[in-house]
């Protein structure tokens, strides 16, 4: 048994050093040092105008920001992303995108509710070609679980997301927040030069409406999750031909949308 009581911290790249008390089964306590993922609130400024806040660890900031821009439907590939300047001391991340992407983001900020971006309609991007056999879904879910268990303990944040194609996991991202995990995995994929269109998303959590909208904007055709989606997420998924399947109970598969993709 272990109980941590944070006494002090020292920021490092993506990690904070903290003093904790470890208590063994005999209830003998020992003071020691441990590294845990660092989390702060960062202000994102795009082209010196549009801004938002992201709560995240400072590691892999570029993939997080690129994934956020992709998920918001502002850019479609890394060529539209020009530069990033990270000020970790002041918790500010300045991003430069091309003029077209900046105009799109500014329009959404002006027409949305205060402090939020608007959610405009967008065309369906996925094809109807991808279909998977149930055993392929289970196998991919098992690969994803092995990926999570294979991460170092200090990389195992609460949530993990990944993207795959043809039975192979191509990118992954972790985070304290579910949407950050999705953004990081999406950003890693795009930075590697791989389009997210018709890819399969994997997550150790259930999808909300907002998450499903961002996957649909990126052209993702299927999501395999470890928990059920919300009712609003299912509606969005059906509208955009996205199949959501859960493997929460052993090898049993529950299909919530676009069932024709699982044959």
Keywords:
single chain, alpha+beta, Ubiquitin-like (UB roll), Cytidine Deaminase, domain 2, 3 domains, six-stranded mixed β-sheet, four-stranded mixed β-sheet
The number of helical elements comes to 6
Low-confidence stretches: 1-12
Strand content: 25-35%
Looking at the chains present, what oligomeric state does this protein adopt?
single chain
Q: Report the radius of gyration as a whole number of Å.
A: 20 Å
Q: Could you name the CATH homologous superfamily of the largest domain?
A: Cytidine Deaminase, domain 2
What is the CATH T-level topology of the largest domain?
Answer: Cytidine Deaminase, domain 2
Helix fraction, binned, reads: 25-40%
User: CA-to-CA gap between the ends?
Assistant: 45 Å
The arrangement of helices and strands along the chain is EEEEEHEEHHEEHEHEHEE
Instruction: Describe the sheet with the most strands.
Output: 6 strands, mixed
Anisotropy-based shape: flat
The top-level CATH class of the largest domain is Alpha Beta
Which class of secondary structure composition applies to the elements? alpha+beta
Mean pLDDT: 83
Count of all domains? 3
> From the 3D coordinates, which CATH architecture of the largest domain would you assign?
3-Layer(aba) Sandwich
| Secondary structure tally: strands | 13
Task: Walk me through what this model shows.
The chain is α+β, with helices and mostly antiparallel strands and 263 residues long. It folds into 3 domains: 1-38, no CATH class; 40-111, Ubiquitin-like (UB roll) (Roll); 134-261, 3-Layer(aba) Sandwich (Cytidine Deaminase, domain 2). The protein is 28% helix and 29% strand. The chain has helices at 61-71, 99-111, 134-150, 178-191, 209-218, 231-239, and strands spanning 9-11, 15-23, 29-37, 40-46, 50-56, 81-87, 92-97, 159-165, 168-175, 200-203, 222-225, 243-246, 254-255. A 6-stranded mixed sheet has the order 9-8-10-11-12-13, with helices on both faces. α1 packs across α4. The radius of gyration is 20 Å and the shape is flat. Residues 1-12 have low confidence and may be disordered.
